[in-house]
């Protein structure tokens, strides 16, 4: 059966209905005889998300997204489960642990993540600095590429849908994309061959007005490039804030998106972002974005500004956090970012009892991730890092810690379409 696009205002109404209908799901209640609700983590347009604890595994916490089932609404959780199953083979993505249906709701259980970008942005009042925004960009680019490689476009890339992979250790420094409730396949398979799914002529708007591209406003079928354009608006939002952030009317947002020059939009951000944005504007529905080109530009900016993935983020460094929250001279935001290259780095190699100790030239170990054998994380640790005996340079270490961000991964073309 064809799925009808859901109007955004209807989605808000749906969330209301859902909150009242699933009243029986409160802390202490156990779902499917296994998952005991601890607390509410978030509410969105398609679901309510709880933190749950597994009765089969002592102390193991996960996230459970619940969707109220009604003949009035098209279910989206089923689709999200389908996307997560396809993503199962990818690294460093949300893992699907369980899913099922009850008489009036459907649920899915996934790895528990840490903080979303909205919460982090709220902590850093003046907005993220270049060092944070560029790293977030590389992680999100990687997540988007992985989704595209399994044949889907996300269609709702925004700060509320980007989270740290965990609350502590290395997971708290890795960003993942969540919420595949609006994802749509852009690939069709027939007779064993994959082809680009034909565009529909007329569609309703899906996604979020603040972040969607002008092509999406024009009700065109969403493409891979549109996900990346939304990512660019999201990067502006977590730094300076997009100029149309307070506009409520779609027509005003469109006007402002058209009239804001690229220099204005990315004022004060690394200039490489302008090159990326311009490049994305040149892509058509059928074009496969050159993810490596985007990655390369982000990495060029990181090199130019001497940013390393191992540097502390603003929210990890009390002094940086205080500075960024001081209501000082607003022009200070224009100062070049000083990356604390000489200050001690707070990330450490993953250490288990059987692991050789950290190389002496490596940054000092501090907080560590969970032991590898007890993975309760979406992050797949590179086995190589457990075997490394030789001291590694900081540059090498950063990709050993975050293997998904290696150049090769962005050059790789898994899906030709
Ligand atoms: N795996 C998770 N771990 C922790 N919090 C989560 C997780 N998934 C979602 N959340 C929280 O719940 C919010 C809504 O979830 P999301 O999947 O985006 O639902 P919706 O489709 O309704 O927007 C997110 O913005 C986030 O704050
Ligand atoms: Mg969401």
CATH superfamily of the domain at 129-309 and 406-411: Transferase(Phosphotransferase) domain 1
Percent range for β-strand residues: 5-15%
Structural class: alpha+beta
Q: Mean pLDDT, nearest integer?
A: 85
Strand line-up of the largest beta sheet: 1-2-3-4-6-5
Q: What is the end-to-end distance?
A: 25 Å
Overall number of strands: 12
The main β sheet shows up as: 6 strands, antiparallel
Name the ligand types: adenosine-5'-diphosphate, magnesium ion
Distinct helical segment count: 14
CATH architecture designation of the domain at 129-309 and 406-411: Orthogonal Bundle
Q: Fraction of residues in helices?
A: 25-40%
Secondary-structure element series: HEEEEHEEHHEEEEEEHHHHHHHHHH
Organism: Caenorhabditis auriculariae
Biased composition (Low complexity): 348-366
Enzyme class: transferase
Region (Disordered): 318-382
Structure description:
Residues 1-8 and 327-373 have low confidence and may be disordered. Strand 5 (96-101) and strand 6 form a beta hairpin. The chain is of the alpha+beta class and 417 residues long. The chain has a six-stranded antiparallel beta sheet with strand order 1-2-3-4-6-5. The chain has a two-stranded antiparallel ribbon with strand order 7-10. Among the domains are: 34-110, Phosphorylase Kinase, domain 1 (2-Layer Sandwich), CATH 3.30.200; 129-309 and 406-411, Transferase(Phosphotransferase) domain 1 (Transferase(Phosphotransferase), domain 1). The protein has helices at 8-21, 77-87, 117-123, 130-149, 214-217, 224-237, 250-259, 262-265, 272-281, 291-304, 318-325, 383-387, 394-401, 407-411, and strands at 30-31, 35-43, 48-54, 61-68, 96-101, 105-111, 152-153, 162-164, 175-177, 184-185, 187-190, 193-196. It has 14 helices and twelve strands. Residues 44, 160-161, 179 line the site of magnesium ion.
């Amino acid at each position: 059966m064809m799925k009808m696009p859901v109007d955004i205002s209807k989605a808000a109404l749906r969330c209301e209905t859902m909150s009242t209908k699933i009243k029986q799901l409160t802390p202490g209640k156990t779902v499917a005889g296994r998952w005991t609700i601890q607390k509410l983590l978030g509410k969105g347009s398609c679901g309510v998300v709880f933190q749950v604890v597994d009765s089969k595994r002592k102390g193991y916490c996960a996230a459970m997204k619940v969707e109220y089932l009604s003949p009035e609404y098209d279910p989206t959780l089923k689709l999200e489960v389908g996307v997560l199953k396809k993503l199962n083979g990818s690294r460093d993505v949300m893992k699907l642990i369980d899913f099922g249906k009850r008489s009036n709701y459907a649920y899915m259980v996934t790895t528990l993540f840490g903080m979303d970008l909205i919460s982090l942005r709220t902590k850093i009042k003046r907005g993220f600095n270049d060092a944070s925004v560029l790293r977030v960009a590389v992680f999100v680019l990687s997540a988007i590429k992985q989704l595209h490689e399994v044949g889907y476009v996300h269609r709702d890339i925004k700060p509320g849908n980007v989270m740290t992979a965990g609350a502590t250790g290395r997971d708290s420094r890795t960003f993942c994309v969540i919420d595949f409730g609006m994802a749509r396949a852009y690939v069709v398979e027939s007779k064993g061959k994959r082809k680009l799914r034909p565009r529909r002529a007329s569609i309703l708007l899906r996604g979020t007005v603040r972040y969607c591209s002008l092509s999406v406003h024009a009700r065109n079928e969403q493409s891979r490039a549109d996900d990346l354009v939304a990512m660019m608006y999201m990067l502006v939002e977590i730094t300076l804030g997009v100029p149309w952030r307070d506009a409520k009317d779609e027509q005003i947002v469109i006007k402002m998106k058209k009239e804001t020059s690229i220099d204005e939009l990315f004022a004060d951000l690394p200039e490489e972002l302008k090159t990326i944005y311009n490049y994305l504007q040149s892509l058509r529905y059928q074009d496969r974005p050159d993810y490596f080109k985007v990655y390369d530009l982000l990495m060029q900016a990181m090199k130019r500004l001497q940013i390393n993935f191992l540097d502390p983020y603003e929210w990890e460094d009390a002094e940086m956090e205080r500075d960024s929250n001081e209501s000082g001279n607003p022009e200070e935001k224009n100062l070049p970012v000083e990356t604390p290259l000489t200050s001690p780095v707070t990330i450490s190699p993953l250490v288990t009892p059987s692991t050789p100790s950290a190389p002496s030239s490596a940054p000092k170990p501090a907080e560590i991730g969970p032991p590898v054998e007890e993975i309760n994380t979406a992050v797949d640790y590179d086995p190589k890092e457990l075997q490394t005996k030789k001291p590694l340079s900081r540059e090498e270490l950063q990709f050993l810690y975050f293997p998904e961000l290696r150049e090769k991964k962005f050059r790789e073309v898994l899906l030709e379409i």
